[in-house]
Amino acid sequence: MNEVPLKFVEYQKIIEPRSVKGQFRNIKTIILILAFVTYFLLPWLPWSRDIGPNQAVIFDLSSHKYYLFNLVLHPQDILSLAILMVFAAAFLFFITTIAGRVFCGFFCFQTIWTDAFRLIERLIQGDRVTRLRLKKQKWNFEKVRKVGLTTALWLALAFWSGLTFTLYWSEAGQLLVDFFTGQAPLAAYMCTAILTTTTFLAAGMAKDVICMHICPYSRFQSAMFDENTAIVSYDKVRGEGENGRAKPLKTLKTQEDRTKAGVGDCIDCNYCVQVCPMGIDIRDGLQVACIHCGLCIDACDNIMDKQGWAHGLVSFSSENALAKKKTSRFGIRTIGYGLASLIAGAFLVFSVVNSAKLTVDIAHVRSPLYVVLSDGSIQNSYKFKFYNMTSKPATFDLSVEGLPNAKVDIGKLKHIELKASRGLRVSVRVRQASADVKRNANQPIRFKLTPIKGEFEEAIIHPSQFITP
Amino acid sequence: MGERDPLTGAETTGHTWDDNIQEFNNPLPRWWLWSFYATVIFAIVYWTMYPSWPVASSYLKGLTTITYQTDAGEEVTSHWNTRALLQRDMQTGKSAVAQKTYLKVIEDSSYDDIAVDADKMAFVESYGNGVFGDYCAACHQSGAGGVVGEYPNLIDDDWLWGGSSTEIETTLKAGRVGFMPAFEETFNEEQLTQVASYVLSMSGEENDATLAKAGEEIFQGQVGGCHLCHTSAGTGLKSQGAANLTDKIWTIADVRGATTPEEKLSRVKSVIHNGVNRVMPSWSSRLSDTEIKVLTAYLLNKRATGDQ
Description:
Structural class of chain A: alpha+beta
Distance between the termini of chain A: 93 Å
Helix content of chain B: 40-55%
Subcellular location (chain B): Cell inner membrane
Distance between the termini of chain B: 105 Å
Order of helices and strands of chain A: HEEEHHHHHHHHHEHHHHEHHEEEEEEEEE
Subunit structure (chain B): Component of the cbb3-type cytochrome c oxidase.
Structural class of chain B: mainly alpha
Number of strands of chain A: 14
Order of helices and strands of chain B: EEHEEEEHHHHHEHHHHEH
CATH topology of the domain at 129-302 in chain B: Cytochrome Bc1 Complex, Chain D, domain 2
CATH class of the domain at 129-302 in chain B: Mainly Alpha
Cofactor (chain B): heme c
Function (chain B): C-type cytochrome. Part of the cbb3-type cytochrome c oxidase complex.
Radius of gyration of chain A: 33 Å
Largest sheet of chain B: 2 strands, antiparallel
Largest interface: A-B, 29 and 29 residues
Shape of chain B: elongated
Strand content of chain B: 5-15%
CATH architecture of the domain at 129-302 in chain B: Orthogonal Bundle
Keywords (chain B): Cell inner membrane, Cell membrane, Electron transport, Heme, Hydrogen ion transport, Ion transport, Iron, Membrane, Metal-binding, Oxidoreductase, Repeat, Respiratory chain, Transmembrane, Transmembrane helix, Transport
Number of strands of chain B: 8
Radius of gyration of chain B: 37 Å
Helix content of chain A: 40-55%
Number of helices of chain A: 16
Number of helices of chain B: 11
CATH superfamily of the domain at 129-302 in chain B: Cytochrome c-like domain
Oligomer: heterodimer
């Protein structure tokens, strides 16, 4: 019995992609620079506020406030975060139905960081051929130096990525000083350590394996694709002809010669395979590993330029376009996901714009339910909890509606004065004279907060109850 | 070593007794041995970290000691335990220090300052609620509503011993004895009814005018002498803790809880018949001056001040 054991995962060799120049490479580089500049510099952007840290973006966990430029979010706004997630998912699906996995190829942080890591590797160790040679080389000084330097730079980038993430959660300058003087909270060290490790492992070691075997997106992308989706595709009819692809030997140099011989435009140079960061051959058709980064298009276009032939042997085009059919941009999926994104987006804007600026919690005191005063009037007590979410102090006048001749008593306080971005608890009493009291009743009443000072304009009304013997 | 038993082929230690008795070499399993070494290392670590060995009248406390103060103010260093940890946290922890700082602020503020400052009032409300819950709520109830006939209501606007800050402080520090003699021997049944009718008439309750008229004579005269404490107007002497009989508040006789005029009359009669004997203990030995101040401010805010 000499059965070959089942192989569930094929361990591929480490991919060493070759560099390429072209429009998609340029787009990728620009996005990489923009993303890094934004990510690494955003915690350092100063911002002036009436109250709160002068940092443009800071998620201040200790005070439960999340500052995004002029927007201040509170834990109560968690719904907005949920809607943002829904919007992001719907919008991602929408884009996927139109242009395939462009998110994966251009915007995903796994792709961006892997790209940056590979850039460092190329700067130190040279391009594909040099790297492959270095790999086979024995461990001498040159190899130790080059590999060591690459790893050190990778670690540095991974560490700075992890530390930058941590800086978003506290005042960056102070935290940075604290971090290197051993004063930072344990959570900051743990967070940085975990993210340094994961960044190094994901972008330096695992690379394409993340996209192939860990990220679920590659597996369900096909649900969003149809014949109208623009995908990176190889024009098989043009490339293969009747007798397949062929190298440009002496007799097959010009397009006329090749057409005569029944050979397509693909000269089988393998450039598209060498530049692929996922190590696939796009000429085999759409594959689960393809992240639609377009680098093979750049590679092929370079070759076509050298041959003096037209671009587009590999291109972003739909199955319909390749079959010379009309590409419809308004498939059921596109419209569905588009609508979902629109609705989620509108809801998100609505929820952020209309997020509560003031929370008021009113608890009717149950022990005792009411008290009779010496003139026979009835008094009920309430515990009020306010939270002013604006960055300006606010003053309100408190009155009660729905109870004839009722008086509100807040002790010796004149008004409800809320400090900027702070909470307050106040004991409130409501009294009704004996003659007006409706006996043995539980009456609905409304507390009315009339703004006097601050950002509030309209009166705020909260319901409660008044209980009588 | 290395010798083998010819019969079984097992390795022996090479020792032989009584000519032919040999010892097989059966070493302990590797996992067992390493587990054993691990427990030895664990024991050493534990021995240094935690209390381990009695020394004379004390013991080795280990490296992880906790220093805290006892309630008597004595500094104690103890071995690591959660009880000591809690004690230390309640004395020098972040929240404890913040609370102490704010208590100092209250200590340095006047009652008027506290009442007009919403933040100070909020602190008094939450800290006072804790002290009140610990010491006062057992009688006066958690919401300070009291129990009619037993413990005074502290949230209405009629305070037997006065509701100013100094009066409340005095009550808390010195305690009070609320006493009204029993008139069971002084009054006969008829007189009881007459006085009770008069008491009901003073706060506008339903009553028999002729009985009340007779009751007034007893109340204001030598026979009853009620006016000595309750005053001839019926509003009560604060110095005696005597109830105001003209308002709608009934602290002893549950008139409000009665449904018929007869029941009201009989409830008032029973109070006059039995007298009142209530004691509020002194708290000066059990509460600090600051705690009494917080409680006073808390009660001043709880107390209904009436429409002003």
